[in-house]
Design goal:
By secondary structure, the chain is an alpha+beta fold. It contains 13 helices and 19 strands. The strands form 5 sheets. A 6-stranded mixed beta sheet has the order 10-11-12-15-16-19, sandwiched between helices. Strands 3, 13, 14, 17 and 18 form a 5-stranded antiparallel beta sheet that branches. Strands 7-6-8-9 form a 4-stranded antiparallel beta sheet. It starts with 6 loop residues before the first helix and ends with a helix. 44% of the residues are buried.
Length: 442
Amino acid sequence: MNKKVSLSLIIIIAVLLMAGGTYIYSGSAGKNDESHQSSDTETHPDILTAKEAEEDRNQAIGFIESVHPFFVDGSDVTPYESAKDKYIKATQHEMSWKDFQTATAEYFCFFQDGHTCIQWEEEDYLDISFSYRDGRMYTQEGKGTDRYITAVDGISTEEILAVIDKAIPAENEMARAIHYNNYFNAKNILELAGADMSKDIFTVKLDDRSEVECTYISEEDKKDFEAADSLEDLKNSWSMDGDIFVVHLNICVYDDDLKEIEAELRQAVEDGCTKVIIDVRDNPGGNSMACEALINAMGMTAPVYGDITRYSPEAKQQRDFYVRDSGTSRSEGSVDCIRNPDVSLAVLCNRHTFSSATMLCVFVRDGKLGTLIGEPSSNMPNCYGDIIFVTLENSQIQANASHRRFFRPDSGNNERMLVPDIETTSAGAYDAAVEFLRTERI
């Protein structure tokens, strides 16, 4: 089974991070406001009347067009108008909740912004072991990883992946690979692709024409994976590996733990420590203040992101410190920063490094502060972020949208993926960093 990120955990992360600073939250999140959080008692109708569908569709469109910076950053809106028209045409009649959810998800996906999406929840998965790479879904059963899946219960792999592309936004190819691994065996996705998910046993066909039967993942296994998603997993810490100061930055939050790490790191550098690892593999993001604090503790300063902030009634309601509910503000970025020639810094990243954690990697790359080691992030270096939330009145579909656009310090670089200086697997990144630091000459 592939481990999925729990929506409730992401909501908790967002609640913890609402204390000020720059935020570009990861994926589907929630706010410290009951009207924007999932609730076990919330229910949705199975069927929406034509009027209910129209009301929710207009609410979704009004929200997006009021909040998202796409409409004020100079982007060409012509393709958007086509996506909007498609959404309107798809929601002009009585329809099932699932069909409305699908149409709304596809509309939000137009922006291909990892922070702008409906909160797509999955509870049931088929018990298939697989891994996506190079355009194929390789099985990890029996014969090893040379066999790949061609169909699940008669639905081709290509059809399943196309449904995922429509429902879940991807900022680059790494993000797309994550989504394929997370949702390929998900019940709702397979149902949208046309599979009959009411059965107990399903057939998986492989490229050699052999077939494997599978069932849903057991409740016991589901509990094991849900239990693995805990706040304890996201606690920040530090350690020494010989003469290397290692920061285990599991979440970008500027709390007492981070302040303690900051102080220890500053003291270590003052005492002559010249080798530092900051590990942001699997870090979902949060508050960029935490990243800048660690950079400052090493006697460095970070380059500056540029940004556009779009003000709206929705943003003002959810950001108590905003005094405006319309218009925009803009700030220019800069690659100017201070480096510490006495410190050799390695930052570990992988495909799950996201949001403010990706921002740390961009600081290091554009400011030439150190070396990136691992995998590219699923988050674009130039990205949208800082999410605002909405719950559609009739369907109770929860969604979020960015209200800021961030421009990396190196404004002329528009790459969609931040490729590390030393590419390796996520699992191999730490050992690669240790070897690099112990052989590098400052």
